[in-house]
Amino acid sequence: MFKDKLILLRKEKGLSQTELGEILSISQRSLSRLETGETFPDEQLLNNIADYFKVSVDYLMDRTTIRNIYDWLGI
């Protein structure tokens, strides 16, 4: 699920909710709501999250276990 991927990626980077919120230009409360599944990001925020973590939107949406197609291809 999206919320689980977001938590995993944030923790892998060693970021607090406040720090990631600042990076994404959203509040800590908004990030908390994303991580609890209370809300879902709009298209732009979803793309910003994927870009920041260098993963595909499909990975965030749990459609694949491949984080980034270029990593998978060895490029």
Can you describe what's shown?
With 75 residues, this protein is mostly helical. It has helices at 2-12, 17-24, 28-36, 43-53, 57-60, 69-73. The radius of gyration is 12 Å and the shape is globular. Helix 2 (17-24) crosses helix 3 (28-36). The longest helix is centred in the N-terminal third of the chain and has 11 residues, at 2-12. Helix content is 64%, strand content 0%. It has six helices and no strands.
Summarize the structure.
The model has no long low-confidence stretch (mean pLDDT 93). By secondary structure, the protein is mainly alpha-helical.
Supply the key terms:
mainly alpha
What overall form do the CA principal axes indicate? globular
Evaluate the radius of gyration.
12 Å
Unreliable residue stretches: none
Q: How many distinct helices?
A: 6
Task: Report the count of strand segments.
Answer: 0
Strands, helices and their partners?
Layout: H1 2-12, H2 17-24, H3 28-36, H4 43-53, H5 57-60, H6 69-73
Helix pairs in contact: 2-3
